[in-house]
Amino acid sequence: MKSILVPTDFSSNANVAIEYACELAKSLGAGIIILNVHTPAPNQYDVASVLIKEELERAKSFAGQKLDEISTMIKQSHQLSCKTVFKVGGIIDTIEEITESGEADFVVMGTRKASGVDKILFGSNTSKAIEKVKCPVLAIPTDSTFHVPKRIVYATDFNNSELNHIEKLVAIARPFNAELMMVHI
Length: 185
Hints:
The protein is α/β, with parallel strands linked by helices. It has 5 helices and 7 strands, in the order E-H-E-H-E-H-E-H-E-E-H-E.
């Protein structure tokens, strides 16, 4: 396994996902990629204004500082390689771009409560990532702590495109001697 991608909005639930991903990465011999994506507010004008440019500069500066802090913590506390990425755009599109490029082959995301029946267990971005991203996505609830996995459950549609996912999950389950279960509802 190359790297585990961990999107962050610098919230407490994203921090839990980062810690979880670090423990996984140690066991799997993987690196960490910490991703922050800034999605600018919609603008009624076609021309980029000075205010939008200022907002982007503030967001980039803030994210750069936070990403540096996280990277330093990961390198010092966990002795893992860590790359940080800041992008402007949509979070799901950016996750897809990074995973499809081969930079990361696994995504770990924090979850938070969201509205809607389909989003009760996972936040809206996590739900979208699970649905759209073409690699395994591990959703970590806010109150989770790392435990060696004994069982990994994979929700599947039994598409041929998912065969690559299963190989990756086997690679994750093997070091932990974890059971891998396929579930289709």
